[in-house]
Amino acid sequence: MSTDSSSHTGKRTISFDADEPLGPTAIRALALGCVLVLTGSYVSVLYEITQVVGGSELLFALVGLMLLAATILARLIRPRTAGLLALSVTAFGFAYYLTAAGVELGVVFTGTDAIISDTVALATGLPLLRMVQAGLWTLGFVPAPVFLSWYLAVRGRYGLGVLPGGFALGFLVLTSDAGTLVTLTGILAAIGAVALGDLERRGDSIAQADLLAALFALIIVLSLSVTVVPGNPTGPTHLVQGEAGTLEATIDSAPDRSGISGQVDLSPEVRFTVKSDRPSYWRTGVYDRFTGDEWVRTGQDRRYDGRLANPPGSHERIKQTVTAETQLGIMPVAPQPLSLDGDLSRQTTVSRHNQPRPETPIQTGDSYTVESAVVDPDPAALRAAGTDYPDEVTDHYLQTPEDTSSEFRDRTAEITADADTPYGTAVAIERHLRTSKEYSLEVSQPAGNVAEGFLLEMDEGYCVYFATTMVQMLREEGVPARYVTGYTTGQRVDEDTYVVRGLDAHSWVEAYFPGHGWVRFDPTPGTARSEVHTERLQEARMNGNEDADTDESEDVPIRDGPDETPVDPPSNPNDPNGSNEDRNNGTDPSTDPNNGSDPSTDPNNGSGPSDPGGQAAGDAADDGESLLDRLLAITRETALLGFVVLVGLAAGARRTDATMRLRREVGVYWHGFRSDPDRDAERAFRRLERHLGHRYRPRRRSESARAYLTALSAAAETDGDPPLDPRVDRVLEYYERATYGDGVGRAEADEAIEIVDDLARSRLPVVRRFRNQ
User: Taxonomically, which superkingdom (predicted)?
Assistant: First the structure.
C-alpha cells in the first residue's frame, strides 16, 4: 500500500498497489460480505420474534429464497422490475397478514388503513412482540429488503444496496426491537459495503471514505439517541409508593410487559381499599405472550367508551368501589369487568384482554365503581365444557416459545396422564405445583426458559414462577390459558370493606372453558406464604409503620377468622378430573382459617408482582454474576459506540482539514522543534505570513513575499492603521536569503523565530494585558 500526498491540497489518497493481495475480486467479496452482515443484523432481530411466536424455519426459508432469487435475477431483470417484484412480494405477504388478522379476503387489498395503522404504531415505539400477529407481520416484512439489498449488491450498486437493509434496521430501531450491538453491527456493515464499493469503482482508491465514515457515525449516534417519531402515550409509568426491590415494585412500571426476576421482598403498605358485595381477587394485568423470561401483553389499547366484553354463559354480577390510598398507575377490578363508573372512567383505556387502565395516575382519595361478572365455577359444568374453543382464544392463548424442550413436554404429559378433560388437566397441574414446590421469595432466576427451569430444576419459588409454569403446562396440553397479575382479596375490616396492601400483590392463572369464559386457578401453595405475610405485617406494625394500616384496619387483629377469599372451583385432590370437594386439599374454603382474607392468613394472597412480576425488583436483587454480565454488555456496547464516534470525528476532522487548520493556527504561536537554519527561516516567514493574514489580509497568489509586505505597509498608511513592525523586514530578508540566496546562519534563523514569536504572541489577550500593566 502506498500513500500519495499533495502540498497544495493537504489531502491524501490511500491506494493499493496492483501486486498486493487485495485485488478487485477480494474487494467485491468483502463488499458482498458486508451486505450479508447488514442483512443478518435485522434478520437476527426478526428471528428473536419468531423464536417466541413460531415460524423461524419459514423465516430462514424466505431469506434463503430471496437471496437465491436476487442472485439469479440480478443479470436478468432491470432495477425497476426488481423494485416492482419486491413490492409485489411485500403486498402478498401483508395481504396474508391481514387475512390472518381477521380482515375478510374480499377487502384485503383495500385494507391499507390497517397496514398504515399498524406501521405507524410500530414506528412510534410499539414493539413487534406486542403485535397480535407478530409472526405473520415478520414474514411479510422480511422478503423485500433482503431481495433488493442483495439484488443491488450483486449488480455492484452497493450504495443503493444498503438502503433497503438500512431502512429495515432503522425501522426495527424505532420499534425498540433492535438493540445497540445489532444496530452498530448493521451500520458498520453498511459503512464497509459503501466504502469497499467506492474502492472498487475508483480503481482501489477510497476517495470518499472519510466523508462516509463521518456521515455514518452521525447516523449511528442519532439512531441510538433520538426518537424520530414521537411515541404513543403509554400511561402511568410507576407506582409512586412501591419500594424498589419489592414484588409489586413494577406493578405499573411496564404495563405492556411483565418480567420475571430473582430474590424480592414484600411491602406491607396499604395501596387501596375496596367496598364490594363479595370478596374477589383484584386484577390489574393480563398477559398472553411468553418469551421465556417475561410476559408480553399483545394488542393496542382503546379508549373506554362504556363497553366491556361480557363473558359467555350465565353469570352473577357484583359491584365494587375502589379507593386509592396512595398514587396508583393501575386500576384494580374484580374479573370479569362489565362497566366502569365515575370521573376516572373518562380517562381510562382498555386492553385487548378487557382489562382497564388509567391514562394518568390515580391520586390518593380518588375512587371509581366497577360492575363485574362472576363466572360460574361449578366443577361439574367445567368438566363438561368440552374443547370447542373460539378461534380468537386458540389463536392467542396457546403460544409457547419455539425452543420449548421435549423434557418439559414429557414431564407435563406425565403429570396430566390421568386427566381426560381440560378441567382435569388444570386441576392436576395446579395440585402438582402446590404439592411439589415450596414457597420462597429468595430464589435465583434460572437461565433461559423460566417455566422449564421451575418445573424441571427448581424446588421453590413465588407466585410468578408458579403461575408462569402452570400457564405453559396448560398450553402444552392444548388448554388455552393466560398469565394474570393483580392483588388477592386483602384484609376484611368490615362486612363489605377490604384493605389491600403491597403484601397482597399476586399473579395467578386464568384458563378458558367454552360456555363459561376465563376461570381462575392459583397454583401457589398457601401455608408458607401465609407465614411470610404474617411476619412482614407484624414487623411493620411493631416498627410503627403508619402506612401499613388505615383508620379502619389498625385495630383489626392480623388473624380475623373465616376466609374471605373467593371460592375456587372445588375438586378432589385424588381425582384429576375434579370432584365436589375443594381442590385445596379437600377443605371448604368458606371455613378454612388458613385461607383468610387477611394477607397474613390467606394462602391465596399475593406474593408475586402484580404486573411485570418483579422486573425492577429483580434488577435490585439479581445475583452478582447476572449483574456483572449486564455491566460487561453495557461496557462492550459503550466501547463500540465510542469507537465509532471517534472514527467519525477523525474522519470529519480529516474531511474538513480541521487537523491541518489546527496545526497551522498553533504554528502561528509556536515554531516547533528547530532544525536546518534555512528551513527555520522559511518556516518563520510562513508563520509571519499567517499572523499578518489574521491581522490584515491573506497574501494573494500573485504577490511575492516582498510585494505582500510592501502592500500591507501602504494600506496601513492609507487607512491610518498602525504601521508594520520594522522587524518584519529582517524576517523577510532572512527568508529571501534562505530561499533564493546563499542561506542564513543559526543566529539569523533564531532571530527570525524570536521576532515572529514576539509579534504573534502579542495578539494573545493575556500577553496584551500583561504588557499594558
Answer: Archaea
Apex 617 CA angle, 615 and 619, nearest 5: 75
Nearest to 254 by CA among 401, 434, 130: 130
Q: Distance (Å, rounded) from C-alpha 476 to C-alpha 362? A: 39
Whether 612 and 723 map to the same domain: the answer is no
689 falls within a domain: yes
In a domain, 159, yes or no: yes
Does 168 map to a domain?
yes
509-515 mean pLDDT: 94
Q: What integer is the mean pLDDT of 207-215?
A: 55
Contacts 24+ apart (CB under 8 A), 143-146: 143/62, 143/66, 143/86, 143/89, 143/90, 143/93, 144/86, 144/87, 144/89, 144/90, 145/39, 145/42, 146/39, 146/43, 146/62, 146/63, 146/66, 146/67, 146/70
Residue 677 and residue 643 share a domain: no
Separation of alpha carbons 487 and 502, rounded Å: 8
Q: Which domain holds residue 536?
A: 257-271+289-304+385-622
| Rounded-to-integer distance, Cα 426 and Cα 569, Å | 11
**In-domain check, residue 316:** no
Q: DSSP H helical segments within 499-623, as ranges? A: 527-542, 615-621
Residue 246 is given by DSSP the state B
Q: What is the pLDDT of residues 28-43, one digit of tens each?
A: 888 899 999 999 999 9
466, pLDDT greater than 80: yes
Domain holding 419: CATH number? 3.10.620.30
Task: Measure the CA–CA gap between 148 and 81, rounded to whole angstroms.
Answer: 11
Same domain, 726 and 664: yes
Is there a single domain that holds both residue 547 and residue 695?
Answer: no
Q: CA-CA distance, 749 to 675, in Å (whole number)?
A: 10
Q: Judge whether residue 719 has pLDDT over 80.
A: no
3-state helix, strand, coil in the chain (%, to 5): 50, 15, 40
Nine cell digits for residue 89 = 412480494
Q: Are residues 116 and 167 in the same domain?
A: yes
Domain tally, the chain: 3
State phi, psi for 22 to the nearest 5 degrees.
-80, 95
Quick check: bond before 615 cis, omega within 30?
Answer: no
Greatest CA separation for the chain? 119
The answer on 437 and 511 residing in a single domain is yes
Give 722's DSSP letter.
Answer: P
Q: What is the pLDDT of residue 659?
A: 56
φ, ψ for residue 548, nearest 5 deg? -80, -10
Please state the three-class secondary structure of 601-660 as a single string.
Answer: CCCCCCCCCCCCCCHHHHHHHCCHHHHHHHHHHHHHHHHHHHHHHHHHHHHHHHHCCHHH
Verify that 261 and 180 share a domain, yes or no: no
Q: Quote the CA–CA distance of 748 and 175 in Å, as a whole number.
A: 70
**H helix or E strand, kind and range, residue 463:** helix 463-476
SS3 494: strand
Q: Which residues contact 525 (CB under 8 A, 6 or more apart)?
A: 433, 434, 435, 437, 438, 439, 466, 603
Give alpha helix (H) positions in 379-447: 379-383, 391-396, 406-415, 422-436
639 with 718, same domain: the answer is no
